[in-house]
Amino acid sequence: MGDWARYRRSPDVPLEVMRAHFERHAYHRHAHDTYSLGVTEAGAQTFTCRGGTFTSAGGMVMAFNPDDPHDGHAANRLGFTYRMVHIGPELMAGVLRDAAERPVGLPLFAEPVVTAPEVARRLLDLSNALLDETPTLGAAGPNRQGSPLDRGGNGLASLRHDELLTRVVWAITRHSRRRASPSGAAPLARVTGADVVRVAERARAVLDEAGLAEVSAGRLAEATGRSRFTVYRSFQARYGLSPSDYQRQLRVRAARRMLGDGVPAARAAALAGFADQSHLNRWFLRYFGITPGAFQRALVGPG
Question: What's the CATH code of the domain at 29?
């Protein structure tokens, strides 16, 4: 297969992702100025960190704090495939404050490599969204599709990425609490039932008022007077969708109406806020089981 790597960096926030396969490459000892969370997809890699030697095999999670020195290389000649998400301390601090979790600066895990399936799944979701890929554990070879980060600002993508990052931190917290307490994890702080409804309905009103315009997680938090974390959980509890899922639904429905009025698919995609026609095609198919083209052709009666 040979060595290969893909890398994307957000233009707006300190968030980076890399997916790579290495057989010969070996990292010299170094440290990042970010929180760095990784998942080994296939194979195994060995590295030294925090005074010990560790091996991360398929499905395992790696967690490095800022300025955690480490190296790394393939554990055998078959190499390893992995991805790593780098999160700036200020971004991590904001998410942790939203979740009312422990202060930033403590190790994310007691050890820099752990078996944590929920954390691995959430990291895969986040990195896939940033890379615009859909690989699974054990997948081989790079996916060369374009990334949303290459296409400029996109409110829907930004909101979705924020939610996926929150899920990563939430999963880390749940894992850490389960490890720390033999009796199980203490539940995260809950808002009251009435507050869930108020927060969710206010957030939905903001999304409805915005129509197809960009809406950030920060704007929803400001409008409701609650944290981004609380907005996300309240909206999910009330409507069964995340705010970004709801916003995408508004955009798909808007595109469907335009298509019904005879607007070309490429034009409808742009007006509805999708990155391009293929982006609309993917979501239209997922929502309605047919492509935009098939939908428009079905409106034409017998000649």
Answer: 2.60.120.10
